């Protein structure tokens, strides 16, 4: 799109070879900031797990140079930034795939048993003194209970046992009398048989008949005893059989009721319903380093917390916090398509806003509920399909922040961070702090203990002089609000109109030539971040006998002037529009511009 025509005496001329419509303009790649110093960041005194070799290999060291308003260098953190992992199952390691399968199995079992719908807040643990009191009290209560129960058992035995003994004795006497009668019958039969017995061949048969008679009588006696015993046990067996049938029926009924799994959704995504659920579960696994049981516990705690807070109802509530719209808002996308959320702490210098947000516990809780509501609504717009954008970039502007002396704001910030880390795992793609004042190290120490190593690795810090340059590393200029060094604002141009970024070297002149071949209305807007340069524009016709037209007389644009300049020129003949930036300062400058043409009638 642009070519360097000449580069002599620190003057660089860029020729725009054609003038396409705004939709086809492609921005030049941003220039990476020069690393002036690398200073160590103080590490908070917290125990953390060592980084894995895989993470170290993927790490990219990012060093931001911060400067105070007076121009003195500030110490800056040297951070390790991890590449955002894939949300596609096919890209996972085998161990990670196995963990995901096990996690899904645990979730499926919990859905089958309706465990999520039964989640309640666990009771708070009792203090040691309370526990001792409870133990002593329970032991004292048990003693009188045992004293009362013991005589009752003894009385029951005294009343019941004699009856049982009498019944047994009666049965025994009846059985003995029957045996005696049968013995007498056997003896009589034996006597008669003996009298008739002879020494002939019939003698043996008679003896056999006597033996058979004795066996028959004895077997009849034993069968009578068995019959009476069975009659006694029969009711008890029938009772057991009936109870067993009842238990089986109950089991079958309960199994039938729990065959249908419960439906549980989180951030609008039903668990295990489709592959979007895998993206959700991977967030919990990665937050717990792929430890399945820990991830499952975190998921259950998150679902419990969402039920207790009433997230679905909270989404529809009007909390009356419209005045917070300037303090927290979504604006544009970063270069990877992540939505960008801006947190402007300086807005809380407004005493009325600060009082309405943090003056008491009720208002702080209302602020937290509003912040959660805002985040939930933003998350619902993310793409949870595998490979989609399911994380957010946050930009925290600390310019004119109330500072750490504001106890109420510090408490609310700490609570919010804890809630977000416990219940919104892996939703942060990048956390950028800009306009960081001298006390940013204090803030860093305050926040760090509540964040994991993984979360801290996504942090980027930049001082006032480096804020705009840092933002353009991650976010295109057309997506950055004007107040933060971009060109995004209400007007003729929108976020779809790409911006060209050029770095102007110190004590150098940069010229952009835009050729125009037909009658049209050429419109452009531009800015130099921090200005303090000379700017001019002119139209040079192609015809030799035509005159150059001065569109903007060269003048110095101060730092305090309007951040964006918009110009337009009606082109009546072939020629070129020349934009000139003369950087007379000792610092490099970022030059941003975009343009579009419209046909115009004579």
Automatic annotation (TrEMBL):
Respond yes or no to whether keyword Cytoplasm is given for this record.
yes
What name does UniProt use for this protein?
Answer: Patellin-3
Q: Name one GO cellular component term.
A: membrane
Q: Which GO terms describe its molecular function?
A: lipid binding
* GOLD domain location: 496-597
Q: Where is the composition biased (Low complexity)?
A: 217-231
Q: Outline the extent of the CRAL-TRIO domain.
A: 317-492
Q: Where in the cell is it found?
A: Cytoplasm; Membrane
Query: Where primarily located?
Result: cytoplasm
Q: Which Pfam families match?
A: CRAL_TRIO (PF00650), CRAL_TRIO_N (PF03765), GOLD_PATL1_C (PF25099)
UniProt record similarity statement: Belongs to the patellin family.
């Amino acid at each position: 799109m642009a070519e360097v025509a000449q580069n002599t005496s620190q003057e660089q001329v860029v020729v725009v070879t054609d003038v396409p419509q705004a939709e086809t303009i492609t921005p030049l790649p941003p220039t990476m900031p020069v690393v002036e110093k690398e200073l160590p960041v103080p590490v908070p005194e917290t125990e953390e797990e060592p980084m894995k070799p895989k993470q170290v290999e993927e790490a990219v060291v990012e060093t931001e140079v911060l400067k105070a308003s007076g121009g003195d260098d500030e110490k800056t953190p040297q951070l390790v930034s991890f590449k955002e992992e894939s949300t596609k199952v096919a890209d996972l390691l085998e161990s990670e795939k196995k963990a995901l399968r096990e996690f899904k199995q645990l979730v499926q079992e919990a859905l089958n048993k309706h465990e999520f719908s039964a989640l309640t807040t666990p009771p708070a643990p009792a203090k040691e003194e309370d526990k001792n009191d409870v133990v002593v009290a329970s032991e004292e209560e048990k003693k009188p209970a045992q004293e009362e129960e013991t005589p009752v058992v003894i009385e029951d035995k005294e009343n019941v046992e004699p009856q049982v003994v009498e019944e047994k004795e009666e049965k025994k006497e009846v059985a003995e009398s029957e045996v005696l009668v049968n013995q007498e019958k056997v003896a009589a039969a034996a006597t008669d048989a003996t009298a008739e017995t002879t020494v002939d061949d019939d003698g043996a048969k008679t003896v056999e008949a006597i033996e058979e008679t004795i066996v028959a009588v004895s077997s009849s006696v034993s069968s009578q005893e068995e019959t009476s015993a069975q009659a006694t046990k029969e009711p008890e067996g029938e009772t057991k059989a009936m109870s067993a049938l009842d238990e089986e029926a109950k089991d079958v009924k309960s199994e039938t009721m729990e065959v249908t799994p419960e439906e549980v959704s989180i951030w609008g995504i039903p668990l295990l319903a489709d592959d979007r659920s895998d993206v959700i579960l991977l967030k919990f696994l990665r937050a717990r380093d792929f430890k399945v049981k820990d991830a499952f516990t975190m998921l259950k705690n998150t679902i419990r917390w969402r039920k207790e807070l009433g997230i679905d109802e909270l989404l529809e509530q009007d909390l009356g916090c419209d005045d917070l719209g300037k303090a927290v808002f979504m604006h544009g996308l970063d270069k990877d398509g992540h939505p960008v959320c801006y947190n402007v702490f300086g807005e809380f210098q407004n005493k009325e806003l600060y009082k309405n947000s943090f003056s008491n516990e009720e208002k702080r809780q209302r602020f937290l509920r509003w912040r959660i509501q805002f985040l939930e609504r933003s998350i619902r717009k993310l793409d949870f399909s595998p490979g989609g954008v399911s994380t957010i970039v946050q930009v925290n502007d600390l310019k004119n922040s109330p500072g750490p002396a504001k106890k109420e704001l510090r408490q609310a910030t700490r609570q919010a961070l804890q809630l977000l880390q416990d219940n919104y795992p892996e939703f942060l793609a990048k956390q950028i702090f800009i306009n960081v004042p001298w006390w940013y190290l204090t803030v860093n120490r305050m926040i760090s203990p509540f964040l994991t190593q993984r979360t801290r690795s996504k942090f980027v810090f930049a001082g006032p002089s480096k804020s705009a340059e840092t933002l353009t590393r991650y976010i295109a200029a057309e997506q950055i609000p004007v107040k933060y060094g971009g060109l995004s604002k209400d007007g003729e141009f929108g976020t779809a109109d790409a911006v060209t970024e050029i770095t102007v070297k110190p004590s150098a002149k940069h010229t952009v030539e835009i050729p125009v071949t037909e009658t049209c209305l050429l419109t452009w807007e531009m800015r130099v971040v921090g200005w303090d340069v000379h700017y001019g524009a002119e139209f040079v016709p192609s015809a030799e006998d035509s005159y150059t037209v001065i569109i903007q007389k060269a003048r110095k644009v101060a730092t305090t002037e309007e951040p964006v300049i918009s110009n337009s020129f009606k082109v009546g003949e072939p020629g070129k529009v020349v934009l000139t930036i003369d950087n007379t300062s000792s610092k490099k400058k970022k030059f941003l511009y975009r343009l579009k043409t419209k046909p115009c009638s004579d």
